[in-house]
Specification:
globular, QueA-like, 6-stranded antiparallel barrel, 9-stranded mixed sheet, 341 residues, Thrombin, subunit H, 29% strand, alpha/beta, 2 domains
C-alpha cells in the first residue's frame, strides 16, 4: 500500500487559519461507514446522532506553551525549540531548529536567562535531549515565554491561547491539541450528559508524530513515534461493561482511538494502565475497541487519513473529502468536523 494512495488535492484557502467564534458552530460531515452515505450538518447536531446506547471517549490532555525562541549562548544564534515530552525530571526531548547549530554541551538562553536549555544528547531528525535550568515553577515560566505550538500550516497568530485547548483539557503534557475535541462546548457536553450518554476520559500526550509527515513510499515502512497514554481503572471497567452490553463506543479523535486500540490489543480488554504507544493504524487493521469516530479533516498522505480510511474504507473517505472540498469545509486543526458513524 503506497503513501500516494492517500493523496488528494486541497485548495490552500480551505486550510483553516483561525478558530471559529463559536466552537460548536463548525460544519460536520456525517459519513455512514457501511453505506458511504453522506449528510451535511453542524457540530451542535451531534446530539441528534447520540443515544443512551453510546459511550463517548475524549482525550483530556492539555497543551503546554511548548514553542520557545531563544539564543545560543556561545554565538547569539537564534534557536527555536519545541518541547515534546519529559523523559525525566527536567530532562526533555525537544525538536530544535536549526539543529546543526546545536551540539552536546550547547546552552540556549530564553527570556534573558529565566530559562536555559543544556544539550545532553543529539538524536535524529532534529531531535535533541536537553536539561532545563530555571528557578521557580516551569509551567509559569512557559506561560510567560512560550507560544502554543500551532502546526506549521497555520500562519496566523492565535489571539486566545485557550482556543488551542479543549474545554475539558486537564492533564498537562501535550505538544499539540487533540483537535477533534475543540468543537465541544461545556453547554454541549452538559446536553450530552442530560441525554444519559456516558462521557469518559483517557489521556494521550500528542508528540512528534503529529509534526512528522510520512516520507516512505510503502506505508508499512513508516515508523510512528511513541506517545505517552493513560487510562484509569474506573474508565476501563466502564468501557468493559459497555462492551458487554453491546453499547457503541465513540472515540473523539484519532488520539483517543490510539489509546483505546493500544490497550485492547495489548490486554484483550480495557485495563487501567499507562505507557507509550507507537500503534500505526492503516487499512487492513481490525478495530477491536471503537465503533465510531468524531474527527477533523486531515492532511493528505498523513497517518491520520490512513487511520480514518482503516475505519471507513479508503474509497468512502476520499469521496467524503472530495465532497467536503466541494462544499468548502475548513480543513485541519481549526477546521470543520466529521462523524464516522
Amino acid at each position: 500500500m503506497k503513501t500516494s494512495d492517500f493523496d488528494f488535492d486541497l485548495p490552500e484557502h480551505l486550510i483553516a487559519q483561525t478558530p471559529l467564534d463559536k466552537r460548536d458552530a463548525s460544519k460536520m460531515l456525517v459519513l455512514d461507514k457501511k453505506t458511504g452515505q453522506i449528510e451535511h450538518k453542524h457540530f451542535n447536531d451531534i446530539i441528534d446522532y447520540l443515544s443512551e446506547n453510546d459511550v463517548l471517549v475524549l482525550n483530556d490532555t492539555k497543551v503546554i506553551p511548548a514553542r520557545l525562541y531563544g539564543i545560543k549562548e556561545e554565538t547569539n544564534a537564534a534557536i527555536e525549540v519545541l518541547l515534546l515530552n519529559e523523559e525525566d525530571k527536567n530532562i526533555w526531548k525537544c525538536l530544535v531548529k536549526p539543529a546543526k547549530r546545536i551540539k552536546v554541551g550547547s546552552i540556549i538562553n530564553f527570556g534573558n536567562g529565566k530559562l536555559k536549555f543544556e544539550c545532553l544528547n543529539k538524536l535524529d531528525d532534529g531531535v535533541a535531549i536537553f536539561k532545563l535550568i530555571y528557578d521557580g515553577i516551569l509551567l509559569e515560566i512557559l506561560d510567560e515565554l512560550g507560544e502554543m505550538p500551532l502546526p506549521p500550516y497555520i500562519h496566523e497568530k492565535l489571539k486566545d491561547k485557550d482556543r488551542y485547548q479543549t474545554v475539558y483539557a486537564k492533564n498537562i503534557g501535550s505538544a499539540a491539541a487533540p483537535t477533534a475535541g475543540l468543537h465541544f462546548t461545556k453547554e454541549l457536553l452538559d446536553k450530552i450528559k442530560e441525554k444519559k450518554i456516558e462521557i469518559l476520559y483517557v489521556t494521550l500526550h500528542v508528540g512528534l508524530g503529529t509534526f512528522r509527515p510520512v516520507n516512505v513510499t510503502d506505508i508499512k515502512n513508516h515508523k510512528m513515534h511513541s506517545e505517552f497514554y493513560m487510562m484509569d481503572d474506573e474508565v476501563a471497567n466502564k468501557l468493559n461493561q459497555a462492551k458487554k452490553e453491546g453499547k457503541r463506543i465513540i472515540s473523539v479523535g484519532t488520539t483517543s482511538t490510539r489509546v483505546l486500540e493500544t490497550i485492547i490489543k495489548k490486554y484483550g480488554c480495557f485495563k487501567g494502565s499507562s505507557g507509550y504507544t507507537d500503534i500505526f493504524i492503516y487499512p487492513g487493521y481490525q478495530f477491536q475497541a471503537i465503533d465510531s469516530l468524531i474527527t477533523n479533516f486531515h492532511l493528505p498522505k498523513s497517518t491520520l487519513v490512513m487511520l480514518v480510511s482503516a475505519l471507513a474504507g479508503k474509497e468512502n473517505i476520499l469521496k467524503a473529502y472530495n465532497e467536503a472540498i466541494k462544499h468548502e469545509y475548513r480543513f485541519f486543526s481549526f477546521g470543520d468536523s466529521m462523524f464516522i458513524k
